[in-house]
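fyi for ur records
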Amino acid sequence: MTRHLACVLVLLSAACSKPSESTDAKRSPRPPPSATVSIPATVHVDVEIDGAPAPAVDAARLGTVKPDYSNDEHRVWRIATLVGASAARPGSMVSAIGDNGVTLEMPVPSTPTDPIPTLSLNRRGDVVVGLVAPDDPFPDYHGRGGRLNRPGDRLPRLYGPTRLRITAGRDAQGTLQ
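which gave:
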């Protein structure tokens, strides 16, 4: 009997204890994003072009280069706008590498309607590299997909890139273009 009483007391004391700080953190809502898109001072993405280091994409550069696309929620720059003509060479590849080693490879578009490699910022300050359709740079996300079988935006994205690698394409003979 005392054994059962001891078990009941242990259970009651555990039920009456204060929630841990981690539980409170899980319940706290995330603060709302700022009203405008601002460039965080910590933005820094290393750039490599054909194996050679190039100037990094950082807050200073983003502050001086006009975005190719923008709205109230996003600022979007073409990779070629930020790093130069090397990212616009036909047959070239733009690779974005994340801090966890994930790599997103994006071909340079060969036609005006092909998706374009871009770097974007949102109101929460997230840096995102991905492909964007030139005719619809801000596709709808909500109300798409799920049980209604509407696909939404299927273009890939990589959050938090640490490095961009631009490599030249090769022609049929293997010569760099």
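The two ends are 85 Å apart (CA to CA). thats all i got for now
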